[in-house]
Amino acid sequence: MRMNHDRADTDRAARSVNAAGAPDTWQHHKISMPEACTGDGRGLEFAHPADMADHLEHLSLEKQICALRRMPTEDAAGALAELDGNVAVDVLENLDVDVAAQIIAEMAPDDAADVLDDLDEGHRDELLGRLTRENSEELRNLLNFDPDSAAGAMNTEVILLGKTLTVDEAIAHIRSEMEDKESPYYGYVVDHRDVLVGVLSVRDLMLAKPGTIVGDAVAEQAVISVLYDADRREAAGLLSHYNFLALPVVDYDGHIMGVVTYDDIMDIMHEEASADMLGMVGADPEESVDTPWRESVRGRLPWLLINLVNSALSASVVYMFEGTIAQMAMLAVLMPMVANQAGNTGQQALAVMIRQLATDRFDHKKAWLAVLREAKIGFVTGLFMAVTTFFGAWCFTKNMIVGGVMAGSLLCDMMLGAVAGGSIPLIFRAVGRDPAHASSIFLTTITDGAGFFIFLGLATVFIF
Amino acid sequence: MRMNHDRADTDRAARSVNAAGAPDTWQHHKISMPEACTGDGRGLEFAHPADMADHLEHLSLEKQICALRRMPTEDAAGALAELDGNVAVDVLENLDVDVAAQIIAEMAPDDAADVLDDLDEGHRDELLGRLTRENSEELRNLLNFDPDSAAGAMNTEVILLGKTLTVDEAIAHIRSEMEDKESPYYGYVVDHRDVLVGVLSVRDLMLAKPGTIVGDAVAEQAVISVLYDADRREAAGLLSHYNFLALPVVDYDGHIMGVVTYDDIMDIMHEEASADMLGMVGADPEESVDTPWRESVRGRLPWLLINLVNSALSASVVYMFEGTIAQMAMLAVLMPMVANQAGNTGQQALAVMIRQLATDRFDHKKAWLAVLREAKIGFVTGLFMAVTTFFGAWCFTKNMIVGGVMAGSLLCDMMLGAVAGGSIPLIFRAVGRDPAHASSIFLTTITDGAGFFIFLGLATVFIF
């Protein structure tokens, strides 16, 4: 953890924080891309490292390497921090180690740690070996934290204010530190043991009566912070709940370890939303179109296998009624409609519940009321569908009993689907699993199996 | 659009912006809740309006009304801004109009507009009628913008800097305006015609050489802004891409109309992620567990009906082969497994693609390469599953041809599912539809229909 730096280090940090896209207007800062590498004749100018990163992602690996090697190191650091994880890894593994190490050294510690985290052990140690001892120690320290924890997303460069400073001294101090820090608009008030006792924004300080002692200004505060080992979702929830620019990360003794800034939270929110959607259908939560397809195959196959086993279970239900179907093949025609409809109903409930859990503000009572709500919806929509399909199946098969069987099984299965879709995420969470992961696969097993069983069961009882 | 206020108005704006949860540390600001309303004996204290809102959401409507009526108006305004949409509407419709109008007047214009937008015409006009002319005009103005556009999410209270100011004057001006503004850390540099020519952060200004002219400081800038009628997703994409605290919203002549701040963008990101997930399975994109269940029924029924029609289509495919099934009921047992597996494969592709489109940085070439990627994944996973099911079905049915039919149809359907899942969002986007909406329903129709057709078709050809 780096709270103070020697001068040289600070300079580097300063440039790196700027190049790393700190919360700032940025437009004044232009990166020009070396002509020789752009492929086309003209040299390109980018207002922001993020744009440079976008451009790099469209180049071949060779051109990416060439461009980064020729760029000013601080610009390369900025671009690297904004590159897609997979691309960044390829680049770092193919850059000369020394150049790579220089770029890493330029990056904001949290961004550097994120990139290094994706590298294989060997490359990582080789790179860390080329950094200054202090630098590599800090990065190893950050790399030890769970990437999904608050500490895994935190930036260690924060502005600390002693309790005894006046607001004027505090403003002066912030002004002097501002250039080096990613979150320059908050000062964190600590006592002599570095325990966090309050937070003051530049706005608070500018509006405070001159001469006020910082300690007094925060005397009334109940500081909102997150424990370093909390899930990063919790940090995201807190920050967006309170609309903070940055959320302090503390250890169990209340010592400030760093901050998670709003821009990192935005990335976390996006990643977690993807994780929910992808996880729901059994893809790797971190998969994107940039994931190497072989990796995706490895990630998806296990869930496809589980899905195969599950659908074999539903199939075995149908097998129980093979005789019934042999007598009336029409049942095989209508059977999938029941399962499909209930599956869709369940997925609607599932999606609503998963998104609700994503907000992290959902107590038990409210949760089960939500399941009850889904049951009501399932019953009413089920009733509607039952009536529709009753007449549909009746007219189609000229057999009223088939219509009745269709209607009855559809109503039951849709209600079951709604309740299952609503409760699966809650059950998963209760047993400590990710509420979203593979939920859709388990839901389909239930709605298919039950749908087939009820439909064919009723048919066996009433039709023959 | 309100750029300057008379004093009284500024005071109100100032309190309202604070009460509305501007980006700030907040801990120093405590709201105490009137005892008589808390239900339990003690008076509650909240560090933040968002906490007050959470508490209110757990109370009965009567207690909510009572609490808001007794609270200091500015606190009520802050809490109301953080309340869930449906709750806020109930409250406003049941509060005495005068009290409601006072609270609305206290709120930040963008928050007030959001709440009023959910009210029915009658209540809205009645409330607007009680406000000052200037106030109601501004709100009517904001209400005219599409809520899904950048302007629909913008805050009109921005700090403007004339080109001719020095940085020192600029800092002094920002300091004087700071209290009134939701985004107090950026100054927007405009020429004499209010055309936006640059953006300077408080950090930029504090680090700039004293005496520098603001106009010169931004001379090099290529200002990044969003058009007022752009989709709010675009604003969200730009702000999170550049890690800005606020993104200026401009008209077609480049005049600044307001800003969208990072805290609103976080809400937008969360809402859009929910919209994708809910829309995918045909639920109302804005549905949550707080949506009245009758409303949800109305929202979901149409899609369930479409799903019913679609599954009837797949059923008609099975109907074509009724004879085949009559001869070999076992086919009805295995048939759903093919469709189910392909459906899951397709949903994995679908989820990956929808999340990719959510990032808003996805050109055509890359898009179709992503579909190719899914095709590869579908082929390899399909091959793996085909081999597995070949032996499975063979052993189970003692019929090698059935195994072959199963394997062949599974491979074809899984590849089709992968390609369909990958392309449906792109096709939807190309024809101007929401890429996510009901995509899963259409996908299932394809994988079910094709799965049944290929499986039963091959069976008819090869088994009999």
Provide a compact summary of the structure:
The structure is a homodimer of 464-residue chains. The first copy, chain A, is mainly alpha-helical and 464 residues long. Chain A is 65% helix and 7% strand.
Outline the structure in words.
Two copies of one chain form a homodimer. The first copy, chain A, is mainly alpha-helical. Chain A has three domains: 29-144, MgtE N-terminal fold (Alpha Horseshoe), CATH 1.25.60; 160-267, CBS-domain (Roll), CATH 3.10.580; 293-462, Tetracycline Repressor, domain 2, CATH 1.10.357. Helices cover 65% and strands 7% of the residues of chain A. The first copy, chain A, has 21 helices and eight strands. A three-stranded mixed sheet of chain A has the order 3-4-5. In chain A, strands 6-7-8 form a three-stranded mixed sheet. A two-stranded antiparallel sheet of chain A has the order 1-2. In chain A, helix 6 packs across helix 8 and helix 8 crosses helix 10. The N and C termini of chain A lie far apart (76 Å). Residues 1-30 and 38-43 of chain A have low confidence and may be disordered. At the A-B interface, strand 5, helix 12, helix 14, helix 15 and helix 16 of A face strand 5, helix 12, helix 14, helix 15 and helix 16 of B.
Helix amount of chain A? 55-70%
What amount of the residues of chain A lies in strands?
5-15%
Structural class of chain A: mainly alpha
Q: How much is the average pLDDT of chain A?
A: 86
The low-confidence parts of chain A are: 1-30, 38-43
Q: What name is given to the CATH topology of the largest domain in chain A?
A: Tetracycline Repressor, domain 2
Task: Measure the end-to-end span of chain A.
Answer: 76 Å
User: H/E element string of chain A?
Assistant: HEHEHHHHHHHHEHEEHHEHEEHHHHHHH
The coarse overall form of chain A would be: elongated
Strand order of the largest sheet of chain A: 3-4-5
CATH C-level class of the largest domain in chain A is Mainly Alpha
Report on the biggest sheet of chain A.
3 strands, mixed
CATH superfamily of the largest domain in chain A: SLC41 divalent cation transporters, integral membrane domain
Total helices of chain A: the number is 21
Q: How many discrete structural domains of chain A? A: 3
The multimeric state of the shown protein is: homodimer
User: Most extensive interface, residues per chain?
Assistant: A-B, 127 and 127 residues
